[in-house]
Amino acid sequence: MNILVLNSGSSSIKFQLRETAREQVLCKGLIERIGEPKGAISITASNGRKVERNHPLSNHAEALEKLIQLLVSPELGVLKSLADIGAVGHRVVHGGEDYSGSILINDAAIKRIDELSELAPLHNPPNLKGIQACKNLMPSVPQVGVFDTAFHQTMDPVAYMYPLPRELYEKHKIRRYGFHGTSHRYVHGRARALAGLENKPCRIITAHLGNGCSAAAIRDGKVVDTTMGFTPLEGLVMGTRPGDIDASLPFYLLDRGMPEKEIITLLQKKSGLLGTSGGVSNDMRVLLRESASKPLAKLAVDVFCYRLKKYIGSYIAALGGLDVLVFTGGIGENATPVRAKTCEGLDALGIELDPKRNEEGVRKEALISKDSSRIKVFCVPTDEELVIAQETRHIVENLKN
Ligand code: AMP
């Protein structure tokens, strides 16, 4: 079955067309600058062909219409007709407490995802735009929603409750949800297989380190805890978000006259690696390059690794031990000095990185710990689109039975 996998953002749509029987990526690409004067669609197909279009795309509906025209065009040579698309799988960010798994999208689900926009005002509305556009363009093609929060729904109240007045949870559903669930789920499964621990008891920490960063503590396939909370702001240091900070800071700044909007921008776009490095960069590549000559670039990397190390320690405590640690995401898969610095000094806890394996284990599945390490450490490239395609196929095939 050919499945179109969509990750619809506010002004961009990331897509892959996947063939599920052989788990092949037929083509993938990006639609950018939707709603701006200079829109762009770029597609790279596995047959080697590339197509680029630069013209305004007024909204998500027009962007997806143009994408589908290109997918069936002889120029790309990927699909013969629209009928070759068997289903569409959507990444949906917030499923609240309603969804602990993927769902077939119908009118009731659309309504619920819309209501959940309250919890994810930046993400669920553009996800829904993608869903609505596909519904109009391909009314008979089934659509599936795969939620970023779903994998974390196994957390117990002890991990997901904030120690705040009870009514905040009861009235406003204020609790910890966690995000990046599809990635944590995928790399956890791969690492379990690589460690020979499929269907065996196991305790795993997954560290998804990209522009956004989160870690999860997983016991026997169930998330026990994760670092992101009510929103993706909590937890680890990220490219431009600080992760955990003292909750009183925004009020301190408000009192001193900083406008609320500026505080939000400060926490979403100016903090994290970018802020700590004094504006050098939010990109770990640049910070690692500049570390030798710019003390604040080095400080940003050090704070990033230190806080991750602290979470690893706390999750070993939460899990009562650890069998496997996994690094993934743009930083986790590539930045060998970050992995080395994070694991430095953790020998006493059973983590011994192998310097040579660490250097070689880049952008591929690899064991990067020593043979003597009690805890196995892996690099596992994430593949959220694969999970979305598999979930979509599973749900659509069940429909037929
Ligand atoms: P992601 O959000 O998973 O695509 O990750 C993006 C981030 O990964 C970038 O902002 C960089 O900080 C980081 N990254 C990508 N490639 C490298 C690399 N070769 N070395 C260090 N960091 C990298």
Task: Report what the structure shows.
The chain contains 15 helices and 14 strands. The model has no long low-confidence stretch (mean pLDDT 97). The strands form two sheets. An eight-stranded mixed beta sheet has the order 5-4-3-2-1-6-8-7, with helices on both faces. Strands 11-10-9-12-14-13 form a six-stranded mixed beta sheet, sandwiched between helices. It is globular and about 60 Å long. A hairpin with a 4-residue loop joins strand 4 (40-45) and strand 5 (50-54). Helix 10 (284-290) packs across helix 11 and helix 11 (295-319) packs across helix 13 (336-343). The chain is 38% helix and 19% strand. The chain is α/β, with parallel strands linked by helices. The chain folds into two domains: 2-147, ATPase, nucleotide binding domain (Nucleotidyltransferase, domain 5), CATH 3.30.420; 196-384, Nucleotidyltransferase, domain 5, CATH 3.30.420.40. It has helices spanning 60-71, 107-115, 124-137, 157-160, 166-172, 181-194, 249-255, 260-269, 272-276, 284-290, 295-319, 329-334, 336-343, 355-360, 384-400; strands at 2-8, 13-19, 24-32, 40-45, 50-54, 87-92, 103-104, 143-147, 203-209, 213-219, 222-226, 324-328, 366-367, 376-379. Adenosine monophosphate is lined by residues 210-211, 239, 283-285, 288, 329-331, 334-335.
